[in-house]
Amino acid sequence: MQKDGRGVTMTSRCLLCGTAASVVGVFVPDDPAAFGGTSGKSRLIRYGLCAKCSGEDDLQATVEKVILAELKGGIL
Ligand SMILES: [Zn+2]
Predict the structure, then answer these.
(1) Centre of ligand 1 from the C-alpha of residue 17, in Å
(2) Measuring CA to CA, how many Å separate 38 from each of 17, 20, 34, 50, 51?
(3) Which letter does DSSP use for residue 55 in this model?
């Protein structure tokens, strides 16, 4: 597990259900400031997903919601 200083790594567990992740996704917000980053600088958020959740239909929307919620909750 590494933090590179501008990104957050949380890839060992599925972002959505918390079981062991089997794939890793990268979320790049259009508006980094809304995700705790500095406006104008890109912010990468890596996340893990299990095989089941990575096949969800509206995955991108769900992932974005969960990441936002976790940022606001101070988890990330
Ligand atoms: Zn999952």
Answers:
(1) 4
(2) 29, 31, 9, 30, 32
(3) G
Q: 35 with 29: CB under 8 angstroms?
A: yes
CA distances from 44 to 10, 34, 50, 73 (A): 11, 13, 20, 18
Q: How far is the CA of 52 from the centre of ligand 1 (A)?
A: 6
**DSSP result, 16-49:** TT-SBPSEEEEE--SSGGGGTS-TTS--EEEEEE
Q: Using an 8 Å Cβ cutoff, are 59 and 21 in contact? A: no
Q: Which of 36-40, 47-51, 63-67 has the lowest mean pLDDT?
A: 36-40
